[in-house]
Design goal:
single chain, 61 residues, mainly alpha
Length: 61
Amino acid sequence: MRKDVIEQVMREMGRRGGKIGGKRAAEAMTPEQRSERAKKAAAASAAVRSAAAKKRKEGQP
């Protein structure tokens, strides 16, 4: 079988149970895991804000 066909089938199989929402995922995590996830999200958000500020400073739209 072709790799792209296998990947598509596996993706569809994974979605059968539905995606786990953020609230439900957080309930399944330990406090340490939630903290790590929040730190990662905060760092990503800060990186986006920093990049946007840098573009504004350089005069780019």
